Amino acid sequence: MSNTALIKFDEKEISCPVIVGTEGEKAIDARNLRKDTGYIFYDQGYGNTGSCESAITYLDGDNGVLRHRGYPIEQLALYSDYVETAYLVIYGELPNLKQRNKFSELLAENAAIGTQMQRIFDGFPESAPPMGMLTSIVSSLAAYYPQYATNNFEQDLKTFDLAAPMTISRIRTIVAMIYRYRHGLPFIHPRDLPFCDNFLHMMFSDPYVAYTPIPEVTRALNLLLLLHADHEQNCSTSTVRMVASSGANMFTSISAGVCALSGPLHGGANSAVMHMLQSIHDEGDDGTRFIAAAKSGTKGNRLMGFGHAVYRNYDPRARIIGKACDELLNRLGKSDPLLDIAKHLEQAALHDDYFLTRKLYPNVDFYSGIIMRALGIPTDMFTVMFAIGRSPGWIANWKEVASNTKGRIYRPRQIYVGATKRDYTPLDQRR
Ligand code: CMC
Q1: CA distance 169 to 29
Q2: Which of 4, 271, 310, 360 is deepest in the core (most CB within 10 A)?
């Protein structure tokens, strides 16, 4: 294999070095392209652009492969839990017992939100959308805990080992508080409980009746969060890196990631799937109408939970979560008509030429909502749940940017297609 690529245009030929990743992925190093030729690459949406080197997650979308720090997602889903996977994603290795205990301790010790910060909730109407609340409250962390958010990488990296578990733990607490606030319920303070049980306690305990952990529910929540822990250079993670590249602290960078997550094509898809399944159910349709509309090709009619920007195969997380849905409902002795509709839709799409030729398969969001519904989490909270899960990935990516002493500010170029030069017209001469 050649270690240079030749790019030929007009009368000119330039050679660019080829970079090869540890899994054999190849990239043309075009960093000098503009300087040497005056040209830039046009890659709308960056689908063919490697914006960074990263050692966190490997994703092979053609073959449906996902690994964190080398470990296949299937093995992590089977043997690990969310806290351990979070540690792995952030620090690069599975923790030994001492490291794991320390990390869990830090998560527990940093779960509470201070009284001053609690007052921020009072400013929101009860009808405020959960993601709207989460974006503002996460960005306020930099104001409430400025000692971890100095916008000086060297300094912020010194406090990182505390700031990282604090961020994960507090995002979880904030999400539970958003739920309580919007339902007019008193806040429930964290207790000395494992991570997922503590979340369920803060969501569902009452001041006079403590939530009783149910092992199947705890396991399902662990799996759900674990499957969202990181996903390479997705929209929100790239946003975190972009903001971090300006030198911004971790809290601020992550809050930008939360904003990016809110869109219906990214983190908002899980609730859109449930709305779609519910309306199919309510209309008594078997999904045929939705499939036909989805094939029209318009963005507003897409089959939600299907397709992926990088997977051209089954999303491995969808396989795991689809199976977990069945198991959870069986163990809880529940049934959900929406699961039956989802399965029917999946089968119909998997046998339809439109979806087959475009390589559109279920993604993680297709089944994640059914699990959350079984856990008692309302649909409008789904995307904030995704944010808890994704926080280790955002943290790890922020750390990679902050630790890279040779990093540059992210500054893509564009192809300008607006008006060419024209002279200013005074107001009284304008039509
Ligand atoms: N339903 C119907 N048609 C689709 C769908 C869909 N869900 N997804 C893509 N297509 C069509 C699209 O219209 C295009 O058709 P054509 O070639 O005729 O123009 C073709 O498939 C290729 O689509 P694309 O627009 O190039 O796909 P993309 O890579 O830009 O978009 C996506 C990826 C995830 C935004 C898109 O598949 C989608 O909108 N899916 C539904 C929303 C969804 O489930 N999002 C969750 C993603 S996974 C969680 C996460 O990482 O955030």
Answers
A1: 39
A2: 271
Question: 333-368: buried (b, 16+ CB within 10 Å) or exposed (e) per residue?
Answer: eeebebbebbbebbebbeebeebeeeebbbbbbbbb
* Amino acid at site 191: R
Tens of pLDDT along 11-65?
788 899 999 999 999 999 999 989 888 899 999 999 999 999 999 999 999 999 9
Residues 55-104: tens digit of each pLDDT: 999 999 999 999 999 999 999 999 999 999 999 999 999 999 999 999 99
- 273 and 172 in contact (C-beta within 8 Å)? no
Please tell me which residue in 352, 365, 380, 428 is annotated as part of the active site: 365
The torsion region of residue 69 among left (phi > 0), alpha (psi -120 to 50) and beta comes to left
269-374 belongs to CATH 1.10.230.10: yes
Domain 72-261+378-400 in this protein, CATH class: mainly alpha
- Bridge partners of 57, per DSSP, are 68
Domain boundaries along the sequence of the chain: 4-65, 72-261+378-400, 269-374
Asked if residue 305 has its Cβ within 6 Å of ligand 1, the reply is yes
- Annotated catalytic, 68? no
Whole-number Å distance between alpha carbons of 331 and 333: 5
- Chain-centroid distance of CA 171 in Å reads 13
